[in-house]
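USER:
Make up one protein:

ASSISTANT:
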Amino acid sequence: MAVDRWLLEQHESGKQPPTLRFYTWSPPAISLGYHQKQYLEFQQNLRTNFTGQGHKLDLVRRPSGGRAVLHQGDLTYAVVTSGLEGSRLQVYAKICEFLIQGWRSLGVELNYGQAGRGYIHKPNCFGIATGADLILADGSKLIGSAQLRKGEAILQHGSILLNPDADLFQEVFGKDAFTPVQLPQNFHRETVIEALIIAACDCFNMETELKPLSEVEWEEILNQC
């Protein structure tokens, strides 16, 4: 999350090009939205308690808004770009097109959620699907996204549920907090990443260049944490 924020700041100042990034989490963690101020019961002991599966859950805060996201068995994507015009939902739609197209190439059709402002009463991001989220035909939420703007620069990142542990979701958020995702098959994350990169190149009319962060850049990011 700190890397996402740093990339946004660098792009806004003209020091980094638009970026597409994918990453996973170890150990499992919960990210809280920037404006999520209420520390619920499940949040208070996360730094010291272990789950029933023996996983220690870390707690981090996102630079973007939204509800709590349990990062376990998921793939996180991040897009940093600029020059997109329109309302927040219109920009979501422009960026999410590569997610829809990439999953379609894997035989999975996605649609936007329909929930309204009721999401503010849900601590769990995957407990409800808004117009910024992507759902499967059965209504289960596959991708939850959040966005942050800094000047003309935009960061949109989100969680893609590939192999979620339903028991762990219920342990953290309570019963009936999670609708199991029913994909037609088990997709390896490298297969998903490859499909999404191809789709992004097509949707954004771009070419990609793999660019690892340098030691100096990592030090700068860590010093901001």
The two ends are 10 Å apart (CA to CA).
